Amino acid sequence: MKKTLLSALLLSFMLLINTAESQVDQNLALRYSGAQNMDEAKAITIDASNNIYVTGKSLSAANGYDIVTIKYNSAGTVAWTAVYNGTANSFDEPTDILYDGTNIYVTGTTTRTNGTGLDYVTLKYNGSTGALIWNSFYTGLGVSDDIATKIAFKNGSAYVTGKGFYSGSTNADYVTIKYNGTTGDSVWVKNYNGTGNGNDSATNIRISVDTSIFITGKSFGTSTYDYATLRYSSAGVQNWAKRYNGSSNGNDIGVSLSLNSTTTSPDIYVTGVSDSTGTGTNIVSIKYTFTSVESWKKTYNGNGNGSDSPADIRYVDDNNIYIPGKSSISGAGTNMALLKYTSTGDTTFVKTYNGTANGNDEATGITIDGSGYVYLAGKLNQTGTGDDYAVIKHTTGGVMEWMATYNYSGTGSDAASKVIVDATSDRNVYVTGASFSGTTGTNYATIKYKQNKVLDLNVFVQGFYNSVTNKTVKDTIRVYMYNSAATVIIDSSKANLDSLGKARLYFKIALNSTSYRIVIKHRNSLETWGNTTNTFSNLYLTYDFTTAASKAYGSNMIRVDTSPTEYAIYSGDLNDDGAIDATDISTVDNDSFNSISGYVQSDVNGDDFVDATDIGIIDNNAFNAISLIRP
């Protein structure tokens, strides 16, 4: 039996008043180390209950590399571990994993007889217990390596593709297999042999709504490799094959493809890496119609004219395409990269990220949540820590929401391979890969990130607002989230208010779809409550106090501008007793008499001097008996 090391780190967030405001926190860090301390996670998936399934390869003393698949529950506790060792006790490695709603499928490669090469292996596990339901193999001709690369599932059938040595071929072909999902029996096996009769290898497979099967990869042409993209019917009939050979007649390798997911006759988006003359390798992406007509082709070359390559491609139903990968940047090595195109081939944005060491950075995974936010995963080469996991969240416009990095031990390599986001409104993020430990070598490392709730707030402070510039003095505010009954503080956050009166605040404890009352506190202003209860939806909430007095409970704000119309919270409650009165006037009057200056509470207009202007603001508010109004 293998010895394993498994550790789970669960961070506690039950702090009533948080002082470290951030948009994301590491919630779990799950590590797995086999007996020989050489382990690498390859793929990850989750189910509807947010159980986590990770598969990878793990070295054992007697069996070589085995396929080790682990199920964690949502709290990070191991539910089961399944080990697959090929009959030759040699090399076994997974390449992909999927969940069909009940069961887990893993595909990859295995050694069944030493000296005869590798075979496809596809494993089906009971999702609840981890029991092996069936395993199926594909063995090509002779002494050959047959390597499954991807698996897809549709209508009770599993589809596996990769490279294999097929009957009648002298070199490797695309070999695609349809399995009966219940029994594991092969329904059909199809090969594709390129025009050059050389080695061909499929890299990805997608199934459309009408169960058409689309495959891409690399295929040998006249003298070099080309993209080759195929369409099969569900019966295994090849409908068409489209090839792409770049203008330099170098090697062109199809890496991934994606489809319009909701249509029965989808367009197909293919991306890959293409040799070019004078500019290294470029990312070339192509759109085909359902009937194989090329709609457009886009080439991306980083300004370093070096190695640019994609890792994946994702079409989303708002007619946009995202491509993660790496890009050569002049003076900065290779960077993590994210490209976005419209469905008509227009470039929306290109984002690159460079680690602090200016080394080799690379994006290897991508996922998109139900609100359209895009998550990039890979590695950044950092000064002092070497390669680190990096996960970056973007808006649809390419604005970075947050970046999270993970380094386990010193300068050892930590490289994320895949990322996924759950379907809950909390949008928890999961990433896996290989991570170095100084004591247990290279391990699986699976990280769960918890995203905090985000309040985008707009508010002005009376004394700080300038009606000529329509701007405000920058300062710090704190916002409290009360329960809907206005009796208990649930959460709070602090942020800087910018010159436009905008602040973004992060809440660790607040929940989605729960009603809260927003309360603003500022160092020399009156506590002000929002007029209504509000809820976070899929992490986000927006509230603007500036548009009307009624946005505050009891309309307890003052109009500070007429063009445009702007409202602000009252300034002057220096002692925070809920009333602007003689006590506050006395404080300002004394500080003014003593010529107090700087960042002080009695500086009501924020000009760093306590003077008659500050006295005037407080005096007027006190005369009008301005005080706290709350539910």
The rounded distance between the terminal residues' Cα atoms is: 64 Å
Q: What does the radius of gyration come to?
A: 30 Å
Which CATH C-level class of the domain at 455-623 is it?
Mainly Beta
Strand proportion, as a percent range, falls in over 45%
Order of strands side by side in the largest beta sheet? 1-2-34-33-32
Structural category: mainly beta
Average pLDDT confidence is 95
* Uncertain spans: 1-20
Helix content: under 10%
| Main beta sheet | 5 strands, antiparallel
The count of strands amounts to 45
Helical region count? 2
Described by the principal axes of the CA atoms, the overall outline is: elongated
CATH fold name of the domain at 455-623: Immunoglobulin-like
- In CATH, the architecture of the domain at 455-623 is Sandwich
List strands and helices in order, with pairings.
Elements: E1 5-10, E2 24-33, E3 39-46, E4 52-60, E5 64-72, E6 78-84, E7 93-99, E8 103-110, E9 119-126, E10 132-138, E11 147-154, E12 157-164, E13 173-180, E14 186-192, E15 200-207, E16 213-220, E17 225-232, E18 238-244, E19 252-259, E20 268-275, E21 281-288, E22 294-300, E23 309-310, E24 314-316, E25 320-328, E26 334-342, E27 347-353, E28 362-368, E29 374-382, E30 386-394, E31 400-406, E32 414-421, E33 429-437, E34 441-451, E35 453-458, E36 465-466, E37 471-472, E38 475-483, E39 489-497, E40 502-507, E41 516-522, E42 528-534, E43 540-544, E44 558-562, E45 565-568, H1 582-593, H2 612-623
Parallel strand pairs: 35-43
Antiparallel strand pairs: 1-2, 2-34, 3-4, 4-5, 5-6, 7-8, 8-9, 9-10, 11-12, 12-13, 13-14, 15-16, 16-17, 17-18, 19-20, 20-21, 21-22, 23-25, 24-25, 25-26, 26-27, 28-29, 29-30, 30-31, 32-33, 33-34, 35-40, 36-37, 38-39, 38-41, 41-42, 44-45
